[in-house]
Give the backbone structure.
Amino acid sequence: MLCRPSVRRDERLRRCVCARSQERGSVTLWFLLTFTALLIIGAFAIDLPRVFTVSGELQNGADAAALAGAGALSQGNTSGPNWAGAASSATAAVALNTSDGVKLTSGSVTAGYWDVAASSPTLLAPGKVTLPAPAGQLLEPAVQVTISRNATSNGGLVHLLLGTLLGMPTTADSATAVAVIAPPSAVPAGALFPMVMDQCVYNQYWDSTKNAPKLDAAGQPYEFQVGNGQEYGASCEAGQWTSFLVVANDTPTVVNLIDNGNPTSLSIGDSIYIEPGVKAAVYKSIPTATTVLMPVSTQIENKTLVPIIAFAAFHIDSADQGSKYIQGHFVAGYTMPTQGTGVSTKNYGGYVAPRLAF
């Protein structure tokens, strides 16, 4: 009988000790779970922004390299896109960029044709493309660049500071860009020389299978005269003056347009005024040894409004005031100094500045 109170007290003490032990165990477990969760959150908070930054740097590098390559497509070649020069320029541009503090050293560069009208285009090798493009396609010269961070390229895999907790200490990454050059369907004010070219002369001196001028026996683009009523073929008058949207026949108007270009923006389908028979004084103001952009139409003989069907590049070699003519030739690639918009279905050598298509 004397031991019963002691037994009850011992039991209460044991239960109290057990309860406290359970509480300490719960706190420890809660701490471990919370700490692990905090580490995982920290991994996301630190590593994800870093991965996004690396991805953005790779994309910027691919964009810049593709644009540099596309910029070379229209340079230094009279027979079509400069594929080799474009690939070389894009490759060189890769090394001008960095990713995660590491200088980029390599990228996959391919030049070819890109269908800007397709919903899911792929780059087509030049040898697999037949020009002119079929109806519904807009095949434009392009450069595709892919830059990767992997085990063997551009500084190796991207290291994750806390990604080890998730079983992913490193990760690969890559970015792809495609840049194209294309003939414009609309041009801003100041882009055009005030002479309209007849499409019939392109049928004679332009190779639509290469989007380049036809070459003579010496391997040079054919020379011809415009502005003096000179005919080629049966009855093709190569070029004639235009006052654009204004109906005018005076020398000061034409001279002003030579100096300043079209006063307003123009698009394919807009009608411009044909102004044949300008005076010899106009030819004093013509720039020589330079390439200009001209509108193209299907009829240029009569004083009337005619619709623009394309924009074309023409190199002016000389101007003769006495005989009132301009002599020059077509060029394969001329990048406009002002930025046009849209894409024309007819390519006559004039391009807008390179732009990203993917």
Observations:
- The longest helix spans residues 4-71.
- The chain has a mean pLDDT of 86.
